[in-house]
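Box 4.2: Ligand-aware structure prediction
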Amino acid sequence: MPLSDLSQRLSSKSHRLVITTHWGPDGDAIGSSLGLAHYLRGQGHRVSVVLPNTPSLPLQKSPGYESAFVHVFSENQSAAQRCFEEAEGLFSLDYNTASRVGGEMQPWVENFEGFRVLMDHHQEPDRGYDYTYSQTTKSSTAEMVFDFIEHDGGALDASAAEALFMGLITDTGSFRFPSVTAATLRAASKLVEAGAEPHRIHERLFESNPPSRMKLWGRGLTSLELLAQGQAAMMFLSAKDLQECGYEAGDTEGLVNQGLSISGVQMSVFAREDAAAGIIKLSFRSKGAVDVNAFARANWQGGGHIYAAGGKSDETLDATLARLRSIMTEYLS
Ligand SMILES: [Mn+2]
């Protein structure tokens, strides 16, 4: 579907819009949502952003996060629900299926009565959107939002640029994943021209760690185990580890990528015991020909994209690790 269809719809008048993104919002989720919100507000629309739950501390420092138009569903349901009730149009950013927003917010997305727009780079998007922009080759949803804004032709202010640049950085591992293309770098260049300051964003994201994060990374790295003749790396943290180190949300984000830094490793998994939910949360990363989306879908009640996916296990940590050892080895042989 051409982007001009959406531009045309939006340009007809000032709309009330609600922007949503996935549970456990990461840098791309927050960056694409705030970036689009800043832009559309600049175009005269009344825009709110509804996040399913609170993001990590560094992401809370994103420009605009503290604004009155940003709502967290799990924190204030009535305010968030009002955004859905009042909006004429809904955006789904950085998720492919409504269940990704979490069970409480899911019906508000599914039963939304106005027009619905999906912009996302994950595979197999839900049907039933009025405007579907699904590009699985894109580095990030932020890059897709940039494309839309460029196509739409309005002014990109510094706050929007900063938010979108953050989405690019976080979803590309600071421009080093295979998903980075000339178009990604061109978008980055344009965002800097519009006022994004890469060093500030980098400092906010990566040099403001709480001590608990460093302690947990230490334990996680110590748990490293190589599988499949060195083609796979596995790390884990138990509920006890999390408790002893003073775990805060976001502390283990990115740890799974460390496995891929080992020579010869094509696939990395990180398992985290979530005692409150009674599950083991799994993160997968890969490179080359290894597709972790397929692996997570087939075995771990999850999915994502080729090189980055998530899943979960309802078994104990030990049983989960045992199963990972055997099926990862099988998958890579
Ligand atoms: Mn993304």
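In the box above, the bound molecule is manganese (II) ion. The domain at 3-206 is CATH 3.90.1640.10 (inorganic pyrophosphatase (n-terminal core)).
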